[in-house]
Amino acid sequence: MRFRHPDGSIVHLSYCTNVHPAETLDGVRAQLRDHCEPVRRRLGRDRLGIGLWLAREAARVLINDPAELRALRAELDSRGLEVVTLNGFPYEGFGADEVKYRVYRPDWTEPERLAHTTDLARLLAALLPDDVTEGTISTLPLAWRTPYDTEPAAARTARAALTTLAQRLDALAELTGKSIRIGLEPEPGCTVETTADAIAPLTDVGHERIGICVDTCHLATSFEDPDTALDALTAAGIPVVKSQLSAALHAEHPHLPEVRTALAAFAEPRFLHQTRTSTAAGLRGTDDLDEAVAGGALPDSTPWRAHFHVPLHAPPAPPLTSTLPVLRATLARLVGGPVPLTRHLEVETYTWQALPAELRPRTRTQLADGIAAELTLARDLLVDLGLKELP
Question: Is the pLDDT of residue 196 over 90?
Fold first, then answer.
């Protein structure tokens, strides 16, 4: 979905296909047919943006077979779909029964991460619509904090990899005329947990093609104030390459037994749900939600937030809620000013099937309805901020 900002530039809105996990190219094609095109039709649009997730296996097939890449581009066109951004965070196995810590490997100290991200950049340059010259890719924020934070060489190795990537992106732009930018995506528990944590390593890399992806669920989970965060990034000259529009789980009164019971329903075995609370002594947290609700690991006199991407249009029932207000405030700063701070927005609720059983979509139709409802909410927010929806 495209929107014209009051300054005349085009802002893209998409939804991320990591909600439909597939490791193979055949699986990706099935996603387009079974999910993405039906969502487009529900929205009554001739064209829908998708933030494509290409696992390692699918990406390698496309890199090694130009005919397959041309065929994928043609299929996107025929189904009324367009790609300006990729989710390069998960490498493989995102559809496994247990993902948890596996999603952080390989990290930016390992050569496989650089190779895969280079492949994604080349693929995106080929998949961009003819009238679009800029693409973006989100990636993990260097690494999970352990053992990275205790290894002296880790930061140097990651910085060298990102510098090499930037050089490759420059060469790609010269060759294709397409500018591909990469955004580190701060996430709780990682060595870059917050936007503030991203400033030093990105300043060290010091390249315009390497910036940050602001995920509004992660921002909220770490209790970051959107204005403070974005002001600091702007002051440091760190570009907001893209933003993922998502909402975290919020518990205002975690000391109450009924709140703990409600939270426990969201503790599940597939994904990691880092949980945080902001205290006078600073941010406190656990790596997963079940550790928090078990008691004793977190102070419970202040609100808790959990890294659980809840549907934007359907916050959980009381006594819980979502951090949609943080998303609204962040979006207002990102695109509500005289000049947009980013032009690529991506709804990323990948946890539909991890919701408590009674909240999960039971059919493809229900899932498509839910995704369309999220995109409708995001569209309405953009229009309210003065952007004009384009055909």
Answer: yes
Burial category of 294 from C-beta neighbours within 10 Å (exposed 0-12, middle 13-18, buried 19 and up): middle
DSSP codes, 64-107: H-HHHHHHHHHHHHHTTEEEEEEE-S--S-TTSS--GGGGG-S-
Cβ burial of 270 (10 Å; 0-12, 13-18, 19+) is middle
Span 156-167, pLDDT tens digits: 999 999 999 999
pLDDT averaged over the chain?
97
Chain centroid to Cα 351, Å, comes to 12
Q: Tokens at residue 328, please?
A: 């609204």
In single-letter form, the type of residue at position 150 comes to: T
Do residues 68 and 35 touch, judged by C-beta distance below 8 A? no
Cβ(136)–Cβ(344) below 8 Å: yes
Distance (Å) of CA 284 to CA 257, 320, 346: 20, 20, 29
pLDDT, tens digit (0-9, with 9 covering 90-100), for 273-290? 999 999 999 999 999 999
Token pair for 334: 């990102």
- pTM over cut 0.90: yes
Could you check whether the bond before residue 356 is cis, i.e. omega within 30 degrees of 0? no
Rounded Cα–Cα distance for residues 111 and 335 (Å): 35
* Whole-angstrom distance, CA of residue 248 vs CA of residue 291: 17
Would the pLDDT of 21 be above 90?
Answer: no
* Token duo for residue 169: 């992106």
User: Token digits for 153?
Assistant: 């060489």
Q: How far apart are CA 290 and CA 50, in angstroms?
A: 32
3-state helix, strand, coil in the chain (%, to 5): 45, 20, 35
